[in-house]
Amino acid sequence: MSVTNSVNSYAGVEIVYDVEGQATGSNSTLDAIVFIHGWTCNRKHWRNQISEFSDRHRTIAIDLAGHGESGLGRSEYSMPAFARDVASVLEQEHVGRAILVGYSMGGMVILHAARLLGNKVIGLVGVDTFKFLRNDPGSGRQSEQLHVMARDYDSAVQQMVLGMFADDTPDALRESISEGMLATPREVGFGAMKGMSDDEPLFDLATSLKIPKMTINATARELDKAAITDAGVDLRMVATKGHFVMNENPEEFNRLLSEAVESNLQVLNS
Question: Cα-atom radius of gyration of the chain, to the nearest Å?
Answer without folding.
Answer: 17
